[in-house]
## 1
Amino acid sequence: MDTRRLHFLLELSRHGSMRAVADVLGTTTSTVSQQIAVLAKETGAPLLEPDGRRVRLTPAGRRLAEHAVTILAAVEAARADLDPHAEPVGTVRVAGFATAVRRSVLPAAAVLAERHPRVQLRISEYEPYEAFAALLADDIDLALTYDFDLAPEVVDPMITASPLWTARWSLAVPEADAADHGSTVQVFEAFRDHGWIVNSRNSADEDVILRLASTARFAPRVTHRADSLELVEDLIATGPAPHVGLLPADRSTKPGVVLLPLAGPEVRLRAFACTRRGREAWPPLALVLRLLVR
């Protein structure tokens, strides 16, 4: 069985059409069809069946695609292990959210510059969904992503996620409305009539707000979407109507904004270092991962 053909099948299971697979792999639909047909002969089982004007994987095709994740990851690991003791050399492409870049990547970059100058970092600021897409497309080597413990992210099986750190978040409110309201649900209940600010490029904080508001038995009125935490503060402090939003609990806020603690339950952001399965053994990437998770 040619593992290259497994790659065609795996991409078909992920994208759902031969045209999409052809676009992703830079080939033609006829090539995709031919490779999967040969793979079916090699396995002795039908892998595709008609689905209207398209095709879909048979149960055997789906099972083989699941095996392909592990097989291809093992092939990647074997290639990386050919010279595991060599001095790391190469460029590691990193994409992640700004806080993780500042907190984790920049200190690692300083160590690399001093001790491993032949390993270079190429850094891009991406939101998690952008970083995951770039990782699966092999446009980057390392993705720094986040979710909240109350709304965990479902990670593609082709990706390995290593925990980095966690951080508590609070509810940012106008200073005039700040008071001790009790538990997290009681805090949310107290601000049910305020406008709510959520992230404009990622839904993680909005998912948490919706979940907690549902527990408090109301539907939050989302009025603003902002990626910048500074802009969230400005909207709370000077907005034309009362607004609230989630911010890191250890953040120093501007005048007019107060952070109310959330407890029972706490709201915690969780940061992860993510790689494609099997790639983490590549010496430059393994070195960077060690510096990030130590």
## 2
Amino acid sequence: MDAMVEAAVACMYERFGDPLTVADIARNAGLGLFDFSRLFKEETGVSPGKFLDAVRIGEAKKLLDSTSMSITEIARAAGYDGLDSFADAFMAGVGLSPGRYRRLCRGEGEVPPGPRPGPAPLHGSVAGTVSLPGGHGNARVFVGAFATALLAYPALASAVLDVPGDRPICYSLPGVPEGRWHLRAVAVAAGTGHDPQAVRTALLGGAAAAVTVTAGAVTSAAVRLRAARRADPPVLLALPSLEPPAAVVPHPGCAAAADPTGPGGAGGAGRLRVVPAAPARSGA
């Protein structure tokens, strides 16, 4: 990661509550606005303006989850000069209003928003493998297709998968509209020590490049996860619980795909979908 971009990201996290602009950040970096914006997007995958907006919404999500501050107070703390502008931005990125998101965090009967297929009348599928970095136990992984590199509402298609720590598994996203989309993933992984469930690591990742979906066809794309970094744009979309499973027991030749409405998800009767599994690596 470029040191100038790292400094810019740090500035956003330190001053997100101020009336900070991208021009201010570029000026602090000693670059013109165009050169700074180009470099920032090359390094992070999103424009500095979208990244700053994501930081503000991401910090607001934390405050809604962990404090009793009013929504008006949180809007102000997150750098918004009005409740309406905050509510609109929050809804656009998270898929729930601030009040509904707080109820989701408190387990008060709210459910995460589902995928929204989009306007394209023709659809294809995306499929491939999901793999974890070494040194982690089992993980629960959310995989989705998005219009931008941000993990923000809406997902065009999504799945929640239980991935064993010792091998990749296959995923399949049917019903993806024709077009070019970003395949993004977020996970929580258990550890590998004597008490794996006592350790939690946030992972992020996706496909190496945007994928092109063609009607009636399957596009292949590998999803690789890694440890989350500070320079990653915050995850905005309200997700189901990603509590890593103690064990993954797939059907022979298949891998378990956790139903986000089941146990560990948003509530409801637990069910498992089944998708073909990747073969185990040699020695796994």
## 3
Amino acid sequence: MPSTTPTPAPVTVIGLGPMGLAMAGAYLDHGHRVTVFNRTPSRADGLVARGAHLAATAEEALTASELVVLSLTDYDAMYALLGGTDPAAFSGRVLVNLSSDTPDKARAGAAWAAERGATQLTGGVLTPPAGIGDPATTSTFYSGPLAAFEAHRATLGVLTGTDYRGENPGTAALLYQLNMTMFWTALTSYWQAVAVANAHGLKAADILPFAVDALNLAPFLEVYTPRIDAGDHTGDKDRLAMGAASVEHVLHTVTAAGVDGTLPAAVLDIFRRGVAAGHGADSSSSLVEILKRPSS
């Protein structure tokens, strides 16, 4: 009997930074016909050697596939790269925009695509390039028209697991930026700790085991989450005033080591604002309420 396995759908990948290269490579690994386009064509040399087609123009890249994956710095880069293209080239295309930007920019991008007859799926990739092609352990937020997502779910699933979050094109961008809010702040705190450790003659390897433990916040988040949603900042688990004293000790330790104290100073400022607002006896989770109001 003839095989009933469907032929992998053609895919275009526009933008060949590390993430775009990884995505195009994953599609080649799974037998897709891959068209690529990049401002610097030489970035595609390795992919072309593996069988990808390098489009000469953005228009050629768009018209080569129904599914077009955009891996660009931001939405402005999309407009700069594709804005001068004949609108007819967008007709019927599904633009999977995996570029990082704000929810408002994602919604505006979806409207821009619709004006040209295309459909945008917004994506927020929760893995570095090394994780692309491993859908069992990685994930990407998607939002936008459900029909478009369902039509291409299997193809998108080649890259990572797929986590669809509704029709609003800004939702995936919002969730991605929430992830980045936590990721970059936590990682910067690790760089801070390494700098202080180095000042005391320790290496990054010396603090790795407890750094991993310190950055595992799951036990705290599981306690705080239902309380925050209930508006309960009772100080029975911790108190903001004690937290402020602890952060002050961190700042003194950092600066005494001759290391830049900008990060802990900023954290201490937030804690002090909470105490000044009358939350000293409340949980440090009360800082959620402080952060809802811009500093005057």
